[in-house]
Amino acid sequence: MYKYLDDFKSPSDLKELDNTSLTELAGEIRDFLLKNISKTGGHLASNLGVVELTIALLYVFNFPKDKIVWDVGHQSYVYKILTGRKDGFSTLRQLGGLSGFPKTHESVYDMFETGHSSTSISAVLGMARARDLSGDKYKTIAVIGDGALTGGIALEALNDAGRSDTDILIILNDNEMSISQNVGGLSVYLSQLRTAPIYNKMKEDVKRKLKQVPVVGDRVTKTIEKAKDSIKYLVIPGMFFEDLGFTYLGPIDGHDIESLKKILESAKDMKGPKIIHVITKKGYGYSYAEMNPDKFHGVEPFDINTGKVIECHEGKTFSEIFGNELVKIAEGNKKIIAVTAAMKDGTGLGEFSKRYPERFFDVGIAEQHAVTMSAGLATQGYIPVFAVYSTFLQRGFDQLIHDVCLQNLHVIFAVDRAGLVGQDGETHHGVFDLSYLSMMPNMTVMSPMNGDELKAMLRFAVDHDGPVAIRYPRGRTADDIETEEMIDGKGELLSCGKDMTILCEGVMSQTVAGIADKLKAADIHPDIINARFIKPIDRDLIVSSVKKTGKLLTIENNVIQGGLGQAALQIIAGEGMKNVNIKLLGIPDSFITQGKQEELYRSCGLDADTIFRQILEMADKDEQ
Ligand SMILES: Cc1ncc(C[n+]2csc(CCOP(=O)(O)OP(=O)(O)O)c2C)c(N)n1
Question: CB within 6 Å of ligand 1 — which residues?
Answer without folding.
Answer: 46, 49, 72, 74-75, 116-117, 145-148, 173, 175, 177-179, 282, 341-343, 365, 367, 392, 395
